[in-house]
Design brief:
It is built from nine helices and 19 strands. With 381 residues, it is α+β, with helices and mostly antiparallel strands. The chain has two domains: 202 residues, Pdz3 Domain; 155 residues, 2-enoyl-CoA Hydratase, Chain A, domain 1, CATH 3.90.226. The strands form four sheets. Strands 1, 2, 13, 14, 17 and 18 form a six-stranded antiparallel sheet that branches. Strands 10-11-12-15-16-19 form a six-stranded mixed sheet, with helices on both faces. Helix 2 packs antiparallel against helix 3. It is globular and about 60 Å long. It starts with a strand and ends with a helix.
Length: 381
Amino acid sequence: MKRHSLFRIIVVVGTILLQGLAIAEDIPLPAVPDLQISPADRSNVFTKAWETINRNFYDPKFNGVNWPQMKDKYLPLAEAATDKAQLLDVLQKMLGELHTSHTAISGDFQYGTGLGYSQIEGRWLVSRVAPGSPAQLAGIEPGSILTGSEGDCIGPKRNVSVHLLDLRDVVRNAELPCASYSSTPEPAASVRTLEGGAVYLPFSSFTSGPGSWFAEQVVRNKSAQTMVLDLRGNWGGSFEIAQKIFDLFFSEKTDIGKFRDRKGKILSLKMGGKKSAYRGRIFVLTDRYTGSAAEVFASAVQESGRGVVVGQQSKGGVLAATHYKLPNGFDLHVALMDYHTAKGVRLEGRGVIPDVVVDLTINDFRENKDEVLDRVRKMLQ
């Protein structure tokens, strides 16, 4: 069974363990999810994942990887896995050999220590603490700097030793248990008015809910001379939603780019031509987590001269992908098509380089300063 989603990016938070700040005996250990899986099921999940990639991956040369050899290398490890967490780790490592976006696997469980992170000024900064996670129970603060970690959530100990500089630059060493926790929905987006009557619109993903809200706000604010479209953290979404968003801003027919599959078949992406499209000035904000459909949109705005891109270089993960449901609660995403912009730029591995680059600093993050938006506000003045 498969479900198409041409710009989907999956962020797998599994065994990337950049977490910390806790006293182990003070942390209650939440219930561990049911991670049990039989030897036959482990082999079945692995085989179906390997075969799905083998049949459908966009590059018939597998980015220079000997794909049959990957089966010989990782199947014994999958068979030796003791539970779903270990199997997921094996599959992630196998897919990582392809060095590509939009090809990833996830499970039906949320398990770890609960921290998101960002790399700023060459250092790993805690950027998010999941509610209800061991990290939150330990009192970890966003803005802490990771200086080292040992351990993982797949071995027998299932805990992580971490070393941090907290917000007061005090060294903290800690042990965090791995545990299950629940994810929380994204906070509701809101519209703001900036200098000169410009309308600020955050846009989190090219999916039905955020896409419908965003389209409604664009139509409602069509009289504004300027719109600031915030695509920072926008991971992408579906092809259908992307088409609708493009039509909101391109009144002239515009060549956006081309997709190419493993057999060389080309799908041209052409948008616009709707007289009802918004014609005012556009600023697009990007960061290193702007990905997939959001990158296609930003590059189209930039190449066509439709607007100005401000912020940091985007993720560089632009491939068309399809979602496959695997047994035992595993989900596989496979890149089916490569992408080049209308000017022939391959965004995969490169990303969109803003017209106006604004570098982030650790102090900006800790003090909750938005230098990117501040730069746009100065440009509006």
